[in-house]
Amino acid sequence: MAQHKQEEQFIVNSIIGEGAEFTGEFKLSGLIRIDGNFKGLIITDGKVLIGKSGVVDTDIRARIVVAGGEVRGNIYATERVTLLSTCHLTGDIVTPRLIIEEGVVFQGNCTINPQV
């Protein structure tokens, strides 16, 4: 259990704040939090957190993705995807574990694959 807690603790490397816009390819190690607008590609071995005010038009490749905003694009997570109740996702998900809260709007396909 202690190992699982260590895995969840990521250093916040980057924040795209509310009102900010970013377009391009974003590669990092650790955690990125998006509360603004992002268009492009996100690649991390860590966690992507999309806040309630976040709007992303992107493909995401990460270990863990937690989405509470608007996502247009595909999510590939090697550990887990969590869609919070405020999330609107249009795109596909490939992950070994998926958590969806009541209220999520999801249009796309989902593949639960332990081999991701």
What is the number of helices? Answer: 1
- Name the structural class: mainly beta
Q: Give the helix level as a range of percent.
A: under 10%
Question: What is the overall pLDDT average?
Answer: 90
Total individual domains: 1
Total beta strands: 13
Write the layout of secondary structure elements.
Layout: H1 2-8, E1 12-16, E2 21-28, E3 31-34, E4 37-44, E5 47-50, E6 55-67, E7 70-72, E8 75-83, E9 88-90, E10 93-95, E11 98-100, E12 105-107, E13 110-112
Parallel strand pairs: 1-3, 2-4, 3-5, 4-6, 5-6, 6-7, 6-8, 7-9, 8-10, 8-11, 9-12, 10-13
What does this structure look like?
There is one protein chain. With 116 residues, the chain is mainly beta. The protein has one domain (2-112). 6% of the residues lie in helices and 59% in strands. Strands 1, 2, 3, 4, 5, 6, 7, 8, 9, 10, 11, 12 and 13 form a 13-stranded parallel beta sheet that branches. It is globular, with a radius of gyration of 13 Å. Residues 1-7 have low confidence and may be disordered.
